[in-house]
Write a structure and sequence with these properties.
- By secondary structure, the protein is mostly helical.
- Helix content is about 75%, strand content about 0%.
């Protein structure tokens, strides 16, 4: 019994260490996930923020346990070569999401009054957030899988399950703290002295923080999506893009001495974001000319069918209209 207990404890330690290592490798995408999510609750009433975050977190767990985890385990076991193309499709979707937000900001800048924000339907909002989470979570899980690919199948399953739970709790716990920080500041501002001053400063700072997070979240979509595509093309033996970026990265690293690591990372990040913006813009263009174009055309066709040739919409029959058999001098009955 003692031997079995020690073996079980050792296995738990190994799984914990492997999960920590795998999660650490995915830390960059975790930061992106935490930056992207707060923008989904910006226009909501304060009392709806935490319930919506909870719904997104539950959707994230469903993504990880019912879609991503089974998929990556089965693919890694039987057709590992499919992981890269699937990830690249996810990367292209992230690029599209980021580029669409950039275009919306440019196209509709100043169109509405100051301080106006469109109130979104909660179901649509949660659906969009969970859909974006699916891509980011897939990237997190695949990065984690690559760190434990040599483990046995069941060990991989347990390790990835631990990573899924820990990362979901971490990301959405941080998001909940961020979006409720202004409420905490409001309560602190009702006290006295330095605490009240700090609370008022917190309340004033949070709109700026959320705006910055929105920008960071959009940039993160482009960066992560572009980086997935950059690595994917290299793994598919299309080396020219990756080698060009790597060459510039190494040159920047060697030219900046002590700051070489940071500068090299920045070069790779900016290049990935530019690639993401280009690919995303192309996808936005294709979607605008095809799928998005059909909606206005369908609406216009419907409106045309209900419109007279003189351009007026026919009014419904009036209940007060004269009956055909009514006498000429008799007022129509209602």
């Amino acid at each position: 019994m003692a031997v079995l207990a020690r073996a079980a404890a050792a296995s738990i330690d190994d799984i914990g260490a492997a999960a920590a290592k795998a999660g650490a490798k995915a830390a960059g995408v975790v930061v992106d996930d935490a930056a992207v999510t707060p923008q989904y609750v910006r226009s909501l009433a304060a009392e709806r923020e935490l319930p919506i975050i909870k719904r997104i977190a539950v959707g994230s767990l469903r993504n990880k346990f019912f879609i991503i985890l089974p998929a990556v385990l089965l693919l890694s076991q039987f057709v590992p070569w499919l992981l890269t193309p699937i990830l690249m499709l996810g990367g292209a979707y992230l690029c599209y999401e980021g580029a669409e937000k950039v275009w919306a900001k440019i196209a509709h800048h100043g169109a509405s009054g100051a301080g106006e924000e469109k109130v979104q339907d909660e179901t649509t909002l949660v659906s969009g957030a969970v859909r974006t989470d699916l891509i980011l979570s897939a990237e997190i899980m695949v990065i984690s899988l690559n760190e434990v690919i040599d483990e046995a199948f069941w060990s991989r399953l347990v390790i990835l399950a631990v990573v899924a739970v820990v990362i979901t709790v971490l990301v959405y716990g941080v998001v909940a703290l961020i979006v409720k920080m202004d409420d905490a500041g409001l309560r602190l501002s009702q006290r006295s002295g330095a605490v009240a001053t700090f609370g008022r400063g917190l309340v004033r700072a949070m709109p700026v923080v959320l705006t910055v997070l929105t920008v960071v979240g959009t940039a993160a979509m482009l960066w992560v999506g572009g980086h997935i595509l950059l690595l994917g093309t290299n793994e598919l033996n299309l080396h020219f893009l990756y080698e060009a970026v790597h060459h510039v990265e190494v040159a920047a690293h060697d030219a900046t001495g002590v700051l070489g690591g940071l500068v090299g990372w920045l070069v790779n990040t900016v290049a990935s974001a530019i690639l993401g913006l280009i690919v995303g813009a192309l996808v936005v263009l294709v979607m605008t000319l095809t799928f998005h174009r059909r909606k206005p055309e369908a609406a216009a066709a419907t409106a045309t069918a209900a419109t007279r040739t003189d351009g007026t919409i026919p009014a419904p029959p009036s209940r007060a209209a004269r009956r055909p058999d009514a006498p000429a001098d008799q007022a129509p009955r209602g």
